[in-house]
Structure formats: C-alpha cells, structure tokens
C-alpha cells in the first residue's frame, strides 16, 4: 500500500512543502505532559523519531499553560540525546488538547520549521489532533505505526491486527505519523549524556481567536484513581462479560489493587455497564502491551486480541477450554473465575 495524494492545486503545494524525497530528516514530536513531566507515551514517540534515521534532529512541541509546562519543558530538554530543541507554546488556548487550536499550532510550527516528519502517539490525544493538523497541511497521515524502516517505510497493523502492512510514504513533506507507544520501548527519564536541548518559545502572535477555531473546552470528567494508567501499566487485570455485574467486577479491581495493576475490560463488559468506557481494551479501546496481562472470563474475540496480544505474558482463566483466548495465552486455567479470583485474593499478600 502506498500513500498517494490527490493534488487539487499542486503548484500551491510546492510553495508550502519541498518534496519529501529531497529533504534530510528532521522530526517534530507532539508531546503530552502531565504534572510537570512528559508522558511516557510521548517518550515512545521520541524513540520512534530517533529510529527514522541516525542524523535526525528531533524537536519536541509542548503546549499548555502555567508552571507545569515550563517544568515539563526543562525535563524534556534532557530526557533523550536525540532531542535538539524543545518548543514551548504557552497559552491558555492550549490548556486542554482541543484539536482546533492544536491543529493551527502544528501548522504554524511546521511552516516555520519545515520538518520532514511530524510524530504523535496513537493515544486519544494523537488520534484527535493529528488528522486535523494533517488536513491543514494537506497531507495524509500514516497511522498506528508499529515499526519504522527508514524515513519513508512504515509497518502498521490492518484487519484488527491480523496482518501487518508495509506502507511506503510517497507524499509531500511532512510525513505525519501516529505510532503505537507499546511498539517503541520508553527510555528511562534523565539518562541523557547530553547537556540538554535548547528551549524556545513559539511565537503565537499570528494565532488570533478566529484562526484558533470555535471549539471551547467545557469540562473534563475523569475518575480519581491510584491505579496505574492502563496504557502504560506493567500489569493489567481484565474482566469480561462473564463477571455478570458491576458488583462482581469489583473482584477484578481488588485483584488489580493487590498486584499494583491497571484494570481493563472487554467491550461486552463495558457495554453491559460494569465499568466505564475508558477501561476498554481492544480494537476500539486501548492498545496495551504490559509485562503481564491477566484475562478473566474473556473469550478472546479478534477485536479484543487486537488490543492486548503483544503483552509479554498472557494468563487466561475461562471455563471453556476451546475459548480463543487460550490460543494466545502463555498460561491458561480452564475453570470458573468465581473460584479462581477468590483463591488468588486469599493467597496474594496484602499490598504494602
Ligand atoms: C467493530 C467492533 C469493534 C469491537 N471492539 C472491541 C474492543 O475494542 N474490545 C473488545 O473487548 N471487544 C470489542 N468488540 C466486541 C468483541 O467482538 C466481543 O464481542 C467482545 O470482546 C466479547 O467480550 P467478552 O469476551 O467479555 O464476552 P464473551 O464473548 O461473551 O465471552 C465471555 C467468556 O467468558 C467465559 N465464561 C463465562 N462464565 C465464566 C466463568 N464463570 N468463569 C470463567 N469463564 C467464564 C465464556 O466461556 C466466554 O468465553 C468489537 C466488536 C466489533 C464488531
């Protein structure tokens, strides 16, 4: 499969972009930050950027407002030797990741910096922002990349992860990519031997209210939890429809608590109202690849496997010996989860 473009006005495009093949690589990474630090997923995007070519200066774009943005920028400047500069867009307009202002920001930064590649993670942030920025830049993004083989060749899953497709990007610059963070291991923070990248403010004077768009942030509803983030947890405990009720699903939560794990769910469990949508793992949920994935009462439908089959060790408990989950499981127990989970809870030590 090749990415091709239908150019409505090719001469106009030439003003904005040099052709992809003629440029040496330089990459803009769109980074997310929280509590004064870069999110681990964004560090995966840096690792991905670094694998495009050896000589590939990486610029990190951070946007938001307040002191936590500046803290994140300072940490980002030393977090990986390939980062040559950190660009900071400090404005209330970027306090929340709305696609409209972010799209305009990326367009502004790209037109000034002329990057060959723009990379974000395939998180809800990247999925929201990248397509709008790509439309503004008149290019077609390559999404869900799991492997990078040079500046214009990428591997991405298709058919719910049942096949891998090699994409040769033949379009104009920038080549915009969203990458699966689970496929690009995160380096430890602060292990850079370099003195640190330069930090510069993005000149936002040309971004007026009108160009920013009409969307407004209203509110964010999120659950306060001490549990690790599902997308980056080392251990995930998932429950399926077999749990039967939200009350029973609490067993999964208790087990996760004892193991210091994140909680996951199948779509059937989410649709039945046992847990909120943000816990769904799979094709239309989160993609995870923890060191240990434990699945209780999960059949292993193809759409669920698409979100977890790259986990290092998979443990499945299902009373049906023919359940497809056992085809990907490293350890399987044919049995009743209503016996297995209480047994585990009893035998596991209390979390300190
Ligand atoms: C376009 C599309 C996108 C989708 N996206 C997703 C997605 O992102 N994520 C996702 O998960 N699904 C997704 N689905 C749905 C998917 O096809 C399955 O329907 C869903 O994953 C099934 O969830 P489940 O395994 O919990 O339920 P079921 O398939 O009903 O399986 C329940 C399992 O529990 C076992 N069981 C029952 N009782 C017990 C017990 N007491 N002890 C132990 N085992 C027991 C049964 O043997 C069975 O294997 C999608 C579907 C479509 C069409």
UniProtKB/TrEMBL annotation:
Q: Which GO terms describe its cellular component?
A: mitochondrial matrix
Residues reported in the UniProt entry to bind FAD: 241, 266-267, 280-284, 297-304, 318
Q: Does the keyword DNA repair apply?
A: no
Main location per the UniProt record: mitochondrion
Q: This protein's superkingdom?
A: Eukaryota
Keywords, A to Z? Electron transport, FAD, Flavoprotein, Mitochondrion, Transit peptide, Transport
Q: Which GO terms describe its biological process?
A: fatty acid beta-oxidation using acyl-CoA dehydrogenase
Cofactor note as given? Binds 1 FAD per dimer.
Q: Which SUPFAM superfamilies match?
A: Adenine nucleotide alpha hydrolases-like, DHS-like NAD/FAD-binding domain
Q: Where in the cell is it found?
A: Mitochondrion matrix
Tell me, what does this protein do in biology?
A: The electron transfer flavoprotein serves as a specific electron acceptor for several dehydrogenases, including five acyl-CoA dehydrogenases, glutaryl-CoA and sarcosine dehydrogenase. It transfers the electrons to the main mitochondrial respiratory chain via ETF-ubiquinone oxidoreductase (ETF dehydrogenase).
Q: Which protein family is named in the record?
A: Belongs to the ETF alpha-subunit/FixB family.
Protein name per Swiss-Prot or TrEMBL? Electron transfer flavoprotein subunit alpha
Classification of source organism: Eukaryota, Viridiplantae, Streptophyta, Embryophyta, Tracheophyta
């Amino acid at each position: 499969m090749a990415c091709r473009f239908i150019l409505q006005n090719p001469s106009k495009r030439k003003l904005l972009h040099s052709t992809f093949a003629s440029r040496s690589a330089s990459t803009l990474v769109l980074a997310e930050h929280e509590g004064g630090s870069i999110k681990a997923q964004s560090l995966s995007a840096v690792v991905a950027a670094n694998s495009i070519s050896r000589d590939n200066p990486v610029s990190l774009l951070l946007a938001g407002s307040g002191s936590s943005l500046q803290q994140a920028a300072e940490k980002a400047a030393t977090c990986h030797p390939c980062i040559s500069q950190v660009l900071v867009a400090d404005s209330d307009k970027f306090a929340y990741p709305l696609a409209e202002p972010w799209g305009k920001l990326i367009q502004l930064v790209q037109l000034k910096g002329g990057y060959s590649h723009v990379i974000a993670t395939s998180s809800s942030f990247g999925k929201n922002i990248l397509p709008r920025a790509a439309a503004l830049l008149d290019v077609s993004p390559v999404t869900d990349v799991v492997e990078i083989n040079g500046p214009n060749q990428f591997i991405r899953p298709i058919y719910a992860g049942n096949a891998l497709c090699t994409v040769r990007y033949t379009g104009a610059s920038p080549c915009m990519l969203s990458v699966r963070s689970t496929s690009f291991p995160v380096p430890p923070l602060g292990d850079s031997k370099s003195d640190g990248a330069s930090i510069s403010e993005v000149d936002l004077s040309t971004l007026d209210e009108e160009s920013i768009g009409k969307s407004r942030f209203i509110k964010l509803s999120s659950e306060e939890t001490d549990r690790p983030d599902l997308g980056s947890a080392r251990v995930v405990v998932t429950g399926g429809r077999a749990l039967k009720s939200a009350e029973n699903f609490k067993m999964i939560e208790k087990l996760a608590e004892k193991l210091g794990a994140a909680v996951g769910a199948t779509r059937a469990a989410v649709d039945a109202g046992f847990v909120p949508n943000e816990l769904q793992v799979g094709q239309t949920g989160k993609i995870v690849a923890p060191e240990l994935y434990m699945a209780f009462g999960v059949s292993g439908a193809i759409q669920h496997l698409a979100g977890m089959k790259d986990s290092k060790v998979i443990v499945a408990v299902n009373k049906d010996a023919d359940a497809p989950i056992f085809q990907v499981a490293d350890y399987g127990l044919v049995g009743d989860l209503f016996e297995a989970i209480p047994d585990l809870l009893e035998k596991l030590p209390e979390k300190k």
